[in-house]
Amino acid sequence: MEARMSEKLAIPNLGNYTIALDSAVRAMGIEPWSSTETSAYAMELGLRAAPDSLCLPFKAHLGHFIEADNAGCGHALMVNSVGSCRLTYYRGLIEKILKEMGRKIHVWGLGFDGIKPPVIRYFDPDMISFVKAILLAVEKIKVIDTLEIAAWKTRPLEMNRGDTSHLLKRSLRELAETNVKKEVRKLHSEFAKAFQNIPQDTSQKPLRIGLVGEVSVLRDKTLNHHIEECLGHLGAEVRNFFLLGAELGNIFGISVGGTKTHTRKYLAKTAKPWLNHPVGGHALDSVAHTLLCAEKGFDAMVHLAPAGCMPEVSVRPILSAISKEKNIPVLELSFDEHTSALGTLTRVEAFMDILKTRRRKGLV
What is the mean pLDDT of residues 231-258? Predict the structure, then answer.
């Protein structure tokens, strides 16, 4: 175990879920190296090294791994993809660029190559450690889902701006420092009640807005310019449709966490009248969740995508058609290194003004 703890594994930024992945890596006897959002320095490194034509998440991943190499990490982990999304080729391309730069870090894919993913075969944790690592990570994912849902509901009602975000950060910090499953469960119960103590104006009726799109810009607060907080402070109860517990439920058909999950089969059936062919990434999810939110009476959707993201760009005309037929406004936001936070805020503020006018005039 001590020998392995000298090895570092860089984990890609997946928002607050990085906390859960850290625990799993550490429980297997490897030192994790990560952050919950892309640092300004990592973004600078990625922009300098990546071809201009590639998307913002690619540049963020590449910069993150260059920064990890600078910190002495010998290994990095990257999620694989299948289908027509270019993410399928990103691991190999990132590793090629790193080698050409003279970097030593090796990038592992998380896909399966036989019974176990190659990264698991390489580090070869004993079965007890591996099972404990997975169970601890799953427990933390459940807590993170609960925290985020509570924050989304509370933020538009808070009487003192920032109370919700401060509590969320403090809770996540405490969760990150807790690595015993029993203690994590205890925290879960405490956290669920903590948001109720925030002073709230319950006379308000927040707009309900769903967030769909590509996972990196949905989850990395640097890439999306803190869109969840922005909408919450403007009076919207958001629902980010990349909840990792629900995503695992989609993939494996099991329930992970306290949220209702829809299987991949159910989402495909929901989207089928509008999307008959797979286009990769989470585009199918974007279509399906927009349709489901329209049925549930959501006030609007915000579709987040990296500029040039083929799957998400491909479904934009479909989302536009759904918007017209189902009477649910959809705001399209694209992100690259030139997108300004102020510009994003201005567009979101204008969108919120329109939604509030619609509600006031009874158009919803």
Answer: 79
